[in-house]
Fold these 2 entries.
Entry 1:
Amino acid sequence: METRELRYFLAVAEELHIGRAAQRLGMAQPPLSRAIQRLERRLGVTLLERTGRGVQLTDAGAVLRDEGRAALDAVHAAERRTRRAAPAPVTSRPAVVLVTKAGASSELLAKLLEAYAAEPDSAEVEVLLCGIGEQESMLRDGQADVALLHRPFDSGVGFDTEDLRSEGQMLLLPAGHPLSSCESLRTADVDAIADPPPARWPTAVGHYPEGPGPQVRDLTQLLQLVALGRAWTMLPESVRADLRSDVVGVPVVDAPTVTTMIAWPPQSRSRALAALVRVATAL
Amino acid sequence: METRELRYFLAVAEELHIGRAAQRLGMAQPPLSRAIQRLERRLGVTLLERTGRGVQLTDAGAVLRDEGRAALDAVHAAERRTRRAAPAPVTSRPAVVLVTKAGASSELLAKLLEAYAAEPDSAEVEVLLCGIGEQESMLRDGQADVALLHRPFDSGVGFDTEDLRSEGQMLLLPAGHPLSSCESLRTADVDAIADPPPARWPTAVGHYPEGPGPQVRDLTQLLQLVALGRAWTMLPESVRADLRSDVVGVPVVDAPTVTTMIAWPPQSRSRALAALVRVATAL
DNA sequence: AGGCGTCATACCTCTGCGGTATCGGGAGGG
DNA sequence: CCCTCCCGATACCGCAGAGGTATGACGCCT
């Protein structure tokens, strides 16, 4: 199975429509139809059910969508990391790319970078800030070499991880909300909030959970919506440092603990990465 | 990057000789030379240093060897698991392939299979027995869906795992060896053994550690060598059930505990696999 | 019944992959 | 010091296969 075939199939599996998938791939529809047929013939497996309106995945097709996505990410990762390993033209090149949610763990991140830079043979670290829930896919497809994740929001499944620190959560409300004057709250109080709805953010697979409340994909959006009185949310206590004056945080004493962890792909062997992890765990 | 290019490069990276790699790939040498050059040009990275005698890997080449191996395994896994997900011609088809070291955890394995078969909607489980240290690669490249691993011999890194049980280790000696009459031993006693040397088995990356002592790759070889007085070894206590009469086991009270765990690729979502894991943890 | 939307088929072109023959350069032996 | 061997690179050729256009087949909705 060639990566081209995999790319084609994944486009079809996502669009569930051969014509649109072809458009997305920048090619005509007939060659794509044939490519999928060839793939099915070679695998000896029917991947699609052709209906009058687009196509549906068979069970085998769903397996190939999931496994194939992981495989294609692995190929992209190999490609990106190989390119990055090329000897650079003298000037500093990032030896490690670290990704984390924009706005999360900013104090921890600053300490980590500072401590690592103080190491005798430290390399350049490029910091990539992404939206909520995007770190794991960036790690998988090689856009990054190491990530800061936050359990239970991110799973860390499929990577090597080390826990760095744990913290409680606090409820973020617009200034002036009835609960904003409390010293602390319990989850029962939070569940009882009627008026602004909770904000929703994407899960690891990229979908938004069902429910009322606005969809957000980064901290800025989130804080602005809270400030506008359109949403509430719960976040780790360390965001306190980044709060705007029109947003109030109240500790929720019995909310699940959030653990910040450092994660990297298991086959990674680079010296720079190992040193970064060692510094992180020693913080 | 196409999987063909990756396959070609990996052959060269392993042989460090383009002619031999071409032979192994069943093709002529010139097209392989060109394919590697094309790959280097497309990546914009030098992968090989051409010397008079064969080739050497550059740093970037070594990265591509490691990352590419993982990526190619992932593609093979996608292919195999998709084939296996095909609707079968009526008769029972294995829905799950389980791999474990031949001879290890045989009692646990029997209980697991029995308990799973008793489940209401259990599927066919094919059991694959492999040599020492081969389970993880079979899981990675899709020859198996789930494995029984033994920490600390196997790492389980890169997979989801659940611990099943822990046990101590015992020293295996030929009947008649001076230590064979002891009730129990300590690791210091084991380290002091002069005469037969310890057997060596492959590590996760497929190489044998340095040292004296015969190399083995399965339990039968191992027990036969012990019986012949050519080697000693330490194994989990559950092998006691499989010992031949000419091999004696003596518990080593302070040896590291061995944990049997069940492991599966993180993106697996099959119902049958989930049920198998649930049964295993409930044992 | 007719039109539309969607995937499959027919047929053509051309890229690019693999094969054979040969060149070039470095290492080792006489 | 030169000759020879070994190994990778280059030149050139033929063909499989990937993609494009035009068109067919089929189900669905009006």
Note: The longest strand of chain B covers residues 94-101.
Entry 2:
Amino acid sequence: MLSKKTKYGIKALVYLAKQENRAPVQISVISQSENISRKFLESILLTLRKNGVLGSKKGKGGGYYLLKDPKNIPMTDVMRLLEGPIAMVPCVSLNFYEKCDDCPDENACAVHKIMLKVRDNTLEIFRNTTLADLSN
Amino acid sequence: MLSKKTKYGIKALVYLAKQENRAPVQISVISQSENISRKFLESILLTLRKNGVLGSKKGKGGGYYLLKDPKNIPMTDVMRLLEGPIAMVPCVSLNFYEKCDDCPDENACAVHKIMLKVRDNTLEIFRNTTLADLSN
DNA sequence: GCATTATCCTATTAAATCGATAGGGTAATA
DNA sequence: TATTACCCTATCGATTTAATAGGATAATGC
């Protein structure tokens, strides 16, 4: 299940991508427009800023803005930042790999086999979908 | 993230599918072989039995066994029984649909758009993968 | 300069879910 | 008729999630 954190993050990013200019947008503007808890959204945007997706400006006329062209922001980046692993099981995760306690042999594991397929497929979609694609 | 419930359930089903005959297998045998908590596995197999995937036999020589040919058990069935919705967001779920509180218009929602793609793709994989495929 | 604005940061919390455990009841078999 | 093994309910600790609170800090415009 997708967390609200990720869901809200994507919505906020799309909102920013739809802005004509790159002028900063206040948290409260996005939060009201997208029906997101202001404080919760605040922490999400902070994460995105700390990881180089967003820039911010303090004081009057401040807010958040995209640092890159939406075309250059693949969903893989967003998902990994906010949601964490894309794979459904740690043992098939590229960026968050973990061995299973129970499995003696990963290659013989049926769960591993099917979830690897799912991950490959999902990954492909997220890789080929950019923020620009979602903003149309 | 895939729950251990589903993970264990798949492993148990594969174990049963690998049996040459359809003789009942005791919970404890599967639990030991697959490194699964006996009691936890018990509740999982019970769910699978109540939903027509497994049959059971009480008393000496009893245990669980598959009711259908592994070829006729698609992973969609297993996933929906144990994990619940296949979609990452309720608003794109076929069997567990729910409207989002925040979204005024589903068709205009970016999250909806991308997650629909992911669901279609994942669903296709689960549909085309049977228990028999995982048991080889 | 100074008041205003809006981000920045830490801590807390209520609720839900997950994984596991406990303990006995019931039915079938040999 | 004793044994075996599934059946059923209840509980519990740990973790995660979503949200909230309260103030510190920095930048802007007048």
Note: Helices of chain A lie at 4-17, 27-34, 38-50, 75-82, 110-128, 131-134.
